[in-house]
Amino acid sequence: EVSRVCEDDDDDDPENRIAKKMLLAQIKSNYSSG
Amino acid sequence: KHSHVLQAENERLFTEFVEHCSALTQDCPEVLTFLQTRHAKSSPDFLSSVEFRNTLGRCLTRAQANRSKTFVYINELCTVLKQHAAKKRQILAKVEP
């Protein structure tokens, strides 16, 4: 399961924060469907 | 022979990219696992292509220069690898005449 620690995003760069959320969403999606 | 050279170079670049990012993604190691899964599922043709080498080289250079955008480049690579997933290419090949 995706770590909940990752949900607490403290990145300063907005673009990086969005990319991180997108990646975590994909991982969650794959985990749910797999 | 040329494709083997490209494949080896791309593997070296990909390993270097993962190693660079691993130190910066310690709070989310599953992100790199996800990237490596995408890489493993990609078309062998793409993995030994000039296009992939250029993408990898660009992402690695930028990731090294902009440590605050690590996830941006990981996400970019994941997107590219997804577009060249082996399964997807096989399905397209069957559909196309």
Describe this structure as you would to a colleague.
The complex is a heterodimer of chains A (34) and B (97). Chain A has 34 residues and is mostly helical. Chain A has one helix at 14-33. The termini of chain A are close together. The model of chain A has no long low-confidence stretch (mean pLDDT 78). By secondary structure, chain B is an all-alpha fold. Chain B contains six helices and no strands. Chain B is globular. The interface between A and B is medium-sized, with 18 and 14 residues.
List the helices and strands and how they pair.
The complex is a heterodimer of chains A (34) and B (97).
Chain A lengths: L13 H20 L1
Chain B lengths: L1 H21 L6 H12 L3 H4 L2 H16 L4 H14 L2 H10 L2
Helix pairs in contact in B: 1-4, 2-5, 4-5
> Mind describing the biggest β-sheet of chain B?
none
Distance linking N and C termini of chain B: 30 Å
Determine Rg of chain B (CA atoms, Å).
Answer: 14 Å
Please work out how many helical segments of chain A DSSP would assign. 1
Strand content of chain B: under 5%
Oligomeric state, counting identical vs distinct chains: heterodimer
How far apart the termini of chain A lie comes to: 12 Å
- The averaged pLDDT of chain A comes out at 78
Helix content bin of chain A: 55-70%
Proportion in helices of chain B: over 70%
Specify the biggest β-sheet of chain A: none
Shape of chain A: rod-shaped
Radius of gyration of chain A: 10 Å
